[in-house]
């Protein structure tokens, strides 16, 4: 066999070997708690090794492979598969370096136009469409908005071109993907958003309160390393299997690399014979570039299982796996965003609530003052002393579209077995308050609960579609300033940069003050005290204080505790909505936006 035949034969053998290995991990759940983690990790390592061997071989034998008929799309397909593997590893480990590696490979494919000319081959065109969808997902999570904007334009054009060039093929599913990404980006970039959702030392570490945090000590301090995130709402904004709510929460629980680490090494384009190369020689990608893009001083991101429409048993299984492997002195965070209902027929109650429409501002103001004076009563939980367990299974959350049977119903009682370990639970639902019954029913560790309002509040409810904008409570916990602006109907644009900076300074100053109060409080419950040194959980607590205060003081709504969030155990009264430290900050924010008439402040 001649040398010219050996190279392409070896190359195709390596391709077949890599594809066989990839098939073994194709359907592995993409989260850290998927069955035998070490077992799957072993196979992922073998797949990586196979593709890296293939990648190195095509680099070393580039000229001979081109002479034997290697197409550019074949290089693109290998690169795309490696990017897919790296992204899978990011989902399984939450390590940022894998996300950057995926981006590097995808960006190289895009810049070098590996799939250009796919209009002649339907199979290649489908590979290109899948590449665009995957690159969009990585760019979204990395918050590369300019790249996302460019990719959406190119992806839309590609789908339209596919319909024209392959008339016998149904591209309806790809049209739906285009609609999803357009809706997603519209919701994600509807307002000015300079500050990243990820934890950034530049924005989220308050210099004035940092010494207080450093000196803070409690009988017990827990580490946050594991989270389970899932959301389901009918017609909710999503892209692929990532909903807007989980997207926001996912980023909220990660570190933001400093700006210098986003800068990539400049590379020059050049021509190489018959092939038009971009960035560097075609087929040569610096796979170690991500090492220069990740800040080595940052701690590891908490591991996160982002579940898309799991059944109740799947969700419980993942929580059980997290619970079983939770290190000592660690806490598990569970975030659930879903609608709910009760076993009993509450149709008349819902109709009654929906039927009460018009109300006077004076009545609302009066009711709000009453709620401010008595807001703590909403946190009161009655523990059934007679041992009756039915209360734990009277209400539930819907985790999927089917409401028949129990496969999609998660009950408060389903969570009780996992309270043997420290648990921080965030429930964002119109039935969230049903989970109050968990307090006092724990099996070893007192649970920490953030429960959303059962109904959202807006200055102009008719102009806000929650299905298209995500949950208001999650919005407050992840992007509090934008949530405040949405509440009062103020749209921040790129022309409002000075306004934005003023508002961010007010919020940052408020959070710094509340941080000092919490760190020096003698009435802070140990449940919250044990979380306070973790920056992610501390930031969530501060944002909850902000959310609770804003919604309690907001007067353009009907009366009723269904419009207010609940925190169990209670936070100290000194950071309650009626406290001076909190009200003064909300007042400054409202005055700067000239919306003080939307709130009821104590004189």
Characterization of this structure:
This is RGS domain-containing protein. It is built from 22 helices and 13 strands. The protein has helices at 3-25, 37-60, 62-67, 72-93, 96-112, 122-141, 145-165, 172-188, 201-204, 210-215, 244-252, 312-325, 347-355, 361-374, 412-415, 466-469, 472-478, 480-488, 497-520, 526-529, 535-553, 580-592; strands at 223-231, 238-239, 242-243, 270-272, 275-277, 303-308, 330-337, 340-342, 395-398, 409-410, 423-428, 448-451, 566-568. Strand 2 (238-239) and strand 3 (242-243) form a beta hairpin. It is globular and about 85 Å long.
Concise description?
By secondary structure, the protein is of the alpha/beta class. The chain has 22 helices and 13 strands.
Structure characteristics:
603 residues, alpha/beta, six-stranded mixed beta sheet, three-stranded antiparallel beta sheet, 48% helix, 9% strand, globular
Topology:
Elements: H1 3-25, H2 37-60, H3 62-67, H4 72-93, H5 96-112, H6 122-141, H7 145-165, H8 172-188, H9 201-204, H10 210-215, E1 223-231, E2 238-239, E3 242-243, H11 244-252, E4 270-272, E5 275-277, E6 303-308, H12 312-325, E7 330-337, E8 340-342, H13 347-355, H14 361-374, E9 395-398, E10 409-410, H15 412-415, E11 423-428, E12 448-451, H16 466-469, H17 472-478, H18 480-488, H19 497-520, H20 526-529, H21 535-553, E13 566-568, H22 580-592
* Widest sheet: strand ordering: 6-1-7-11-12-13
Shape: globular
Low-confidence stretches: 259-283, 345-371, 373-377, 379-386
Task: Determine the mean pLDDT.
Answer: 84
The end-to-end distance, rounded to whole angstroms, is 93 Å
| Helix share, percent | 40-55%
- Main β-sheet: number of strands, strand sense, barrel status? 6 strands, mixed
Figure out the total of helices. 22
Counted beta strands: 13
Secondary structure category: alpha/beta
Percent of residues in beta strands? 5-15%
What would you report as the Rg, rounded to the nearest angstrom? 26 Å
